[in-house]
Amino acid sequence: MSAAATAARTAHDAGVERLLASYRTVPATSAVRLAKRTSNLFRTRTRADAAGLDTSGLTHVISVDPEARTADVAGMCTYEDLVAATLPFGLAPLVVPQLKTITLGGAVTGLGIESTSFRNGLPHESVLEMDVLTGAGEVVTAARGEPGAGGAGGEHADLFRAFPNSYGTLGYAVRLRIELEPVQPFVALTHVRFDDLRDLMAEMERIVDSGRYGDLWVDYLDGVVFSARESYLCLGTQTAERGPVSDYTRQQVYYRSIQHGDGVRRDRLTAHDYLWRWDADWFWCSQAFGAQHPLARRVWPRRLRRSSFYGRLMRLERRFDIGDRLERVQGRPPRERVIQDVEVPIERCAEFLDWFLANVPIEPIWLCPLRLRGEAEWPLYPLRRGRTYVNVGFWSTVPVGATEGETNRRIEREVSALDGHKSLYSDAFYERDEFDALYGGDAYRAVKQRYDPDSRLLDLYAKAVQRR
Ligand SMILES: Cc1cc2nc3c(=O)[nH]c(=O)nc-3n(C[C@H](O)[C@H](O)[C@H](O)COP(=O)(O)OP(=O)(O)OC[C@H]3O[C@@H](n4cnc5c(N)ncnc54)[C@H](O)[C@@H]3O)c2cc1C
Fold first, then answer.
1. Kind of pairing, strands 139-143 and 186-194?
2. Sign of the CA dihedral 79, 80, 81, 85?
3. Please, is 163 exposed, middle or buried when counting C-beta atoms within 10 Å of its C-beta (0-12, 13-18, 19+)?
4. What class of enzyme is it (predicted)?
5. Domains and CATH numbers, the chain
């Protein structure tokens, strides 16, 4: 091991020690939580009654092994730092969530998705092993493998399988070893327009099955719906060919660059800028803060054109209830937050979009196909192997209805009726029984009992539903 690698490992061990030391200072009767600087969670995050654990030494990449194409990464390392460490080797994580401050541990425990998910599945599927601080205060190594098969993987394979979608309620990942894939320095983009959502879905399915659009090899695939008559598939192809590239951290806005008349529009980005293409304007949500207005954009500091900054603005807005106050002044009702990502089987997705466009006044809508990559079962988010789903993302507000969370509840019902799933980073309204049926309640309880017997961490239902 080189001196630099030894130093990185030593620094990481010191970070784990600090985390454990902070855990030990918490009385056994108190609950604990992560004290993190950033978050991409939309439901209420902090527990006033829970003590914050010191994660300050767990934010770095420990090592990259270009031969084995793996990286050892601290649990609270952001994807921005992770990608910065791997790209110089011509490598990238198999799935890089779009927002720079999402952490590796957060994406594995809270699920993540991106335009590689049609071929690489979800972020937890490329984890080889992870060290987890459990609710019982022990650090255990959980790896792929069957329970009882011996070795670290065997002994804690139940934790490994139940970790995705547990949202930190079983323990905290402090180190993860992940697979990486080779990437070329540039991405050539082809945006294809559709005026019928069924045509778009049919083409998406063909690309997922074949990896091609006509003669074009497709490495990355997502899409945007602007209306029932205007939607796009955004295809990315890796390339080493040099040439002019666009830069959407300046005056132009990425999602606007997708829109065009009939046919296709071509574009190019560096691999780095492709991975972060959605971050500069938080998909399209920066519009709410005026950041897309040409004049505001000219004076808006470039370093603040990023999702984490808009996230801070949004938390301020919510703290002071600015949006609803403005609605009141204009004699309008307050608004319900509808910020969700749902997964719908591809063959039902056009049906879901028809329903959504007719019932929920939100657009644009993000589309991202996914298929589980491996053979493993993930009990807390049981997608079916061999089946293609489409992640449908919508992030805005609507006028409040007669009951709390009316639109969110209707979406939950519609998604369940179509045999879909909803991710839990935002508001959820399920009854306990339904929640248990959808999110592996029995499997969860067994693993919870083993790794957090004294309930130092919240229960998943309490965290995802009751604490909204
Ligand atoms: C508007 C919006 C859009 C989103 N879009 C995408 C998207 O396009 N693609 C995508 O992939 N994801 C997306 N997400 C979801 C995001 O990946 C998850 O919310 C993820 O959990 C956030 O990770 P974080 O590191 O920011 O964690 P946080 O927000 O800090 O925490 C999320 C949860 O994970 C727990 N947690 C954090 N770190 C760890 C750890 N090391 N070990 C165990 N538990 C931990 C926390 O306790 C908390 O319950 C989106 C979320 C939002 C709000």
1. unpaired
2. positive
3. buried
4. oxidoreductase
5. 3-183+451-464 (3.30.465.10)
**What does DSSP say about strands 50-54 and 31-35: parallel, antiparallel, or unpaired?**
parallel
Please check the confidence at residue 267 and state whether its pLDDT lies above 70.
yes
User: Which of 16, 19, 23, 34 gets mutated to test ligand 1 (max ligand atoms within 8 A of its CB)?
Assistant: 34
Concatenating the DSSP letter of every residue in 305-370 gives -SHHHHHHHHHHHHHTTHHHHHHHHTT---EEEEEEEEEEEHHHHHHHHHHHHHH-----EEEEEE
State both tokens at 356: 């959504």
Residue 19 has pLDDT above 80, yes or no: yes
Mean pLDDT computed over 220-247: 98
How far does the centroid of ligand 1 lie from the alpha carbon of residue 304, in Å? 21
C-alpha closest to that of 123 among 462, 440, 381, 347 = 381
pLDDT given at position 324: 63
**152 has pLDDT over 50:** no
Cβ-contact 426, 111 below 8 angstroms: no
Residues with CB under 6 A from ligand 1: 34, 36, 38-42, 75-76, 97-98, 102-103, 105-107, 109-110, 112-114, 167-168, 172-173, 339, 341, 395, 425
- What amino acid occupies position 116? T
Q: What is the DSSP letter of 462?
A: I
Q: How many CB atoms lie within 10 A of CB 230?
A: 15
Determine the distance from the C-alpha atom of residue 380 to the mean position of all C-alpha atoms in its chain, rounded to a whole number: 16
